[in-house]
Amino acid sequence: MIMFIVEANTDDLTQLARSTDEGHLKPLIEKVYPLEQARQAYERLSEGHLRGKIVLSI
């Protein structure tokens, strides 16, 4: 098993947010599910072979 610890860096996160807002960085999203469809989102995630992230909208 491989374990690692991630420490959030405010400056880096701010730069990522700025780059996203300016359109320089675009996240790849497979599909957005409403929170009520979390089970379907999980099932899709379990299928694998995604072309982006699964997003739950609240």
Automatic annotation (TrEMBL):
Gene3D superfamilies: Medium-chain alcohol dehydrogenases, catalytic domain (3.90.180.10), NAD(P)-binding Rossmann-like Domain (3.40.50.720). It comes from the Bacteria. This is Alcohol dehydrogenase-like C-terminal domain-containing protein.
